[in-house]
Amino acid sequence: MLSIETVRYRDRAEIIRHIRTQVFQLEQNIAPELEFDGLDDAATHLLAWWKKTPVGTARLRAIAPHTGKIERLAVLPEMRRRGIGRQLIQYALDSFQQQGTNRVVLNAQAYITPLYARLGFQIHGDPFEEAGIPHVSMEIALNGSYSDS
To answer: Which H or E run contains 20?
Structure first.
């Protein structure tokens, strides 16, 4: 019932903005200028569809040679607890691995770190606040090892 597609922001901006507005602005009270930071056009986006309804999204960016970043993971509240977030993350990891990325990082809201940990991410560094919400940096090595070069 769930399908995930890779899309360009300009092709699906309305859908992506709707999901992220629902989750980040309306639910979590994040300011629009923090949520929509001008990096969307240069990123790859994932869209999760439940049957024919868009229910989740994530943004993927290369931030250094061989290092990718997962950002803006959002699943509509009524569709949570169905494994959609986990499947979006796994799809993102598979996509990065196919591109030859060795390391993937993300800034996780503290409450959701167990989801990422179950997929192999490890906390890296101290907790911090972003947009008024507690976060931790997490990372995972793909292909067994990684390098910052």
So the answer is: helix 9-20
Inter-CA distances, 13 with 16, 18, 20, 43, 53, Å: 5, 8, 10, 12, 15
Query: Who's near 8: CB < 8 A, 6+ residues apart?
Result: 44, 45
Q: What is the pLDDT of residues 121-141, one digit of tens each?
A: 999 999 999 888 999 999 999
CB 69 within 8 A of CB 60: yes
Q: Cα–Cα distance between 43 and 69 in angstroms, integer?
A: 10
What is d(CA 123, CA 139) in angstroms, rounded to the nearest whole number? 7
Q: Roughly how many angstroms between the first and final C-alpha of the chain, as a whole number?
A: 40
Domains of the chain: 2-141 (3.40.630.30)
**How long, in residues, is the chain?**
149
Task: Provide the whole-model pTM.
Answer: 0.91
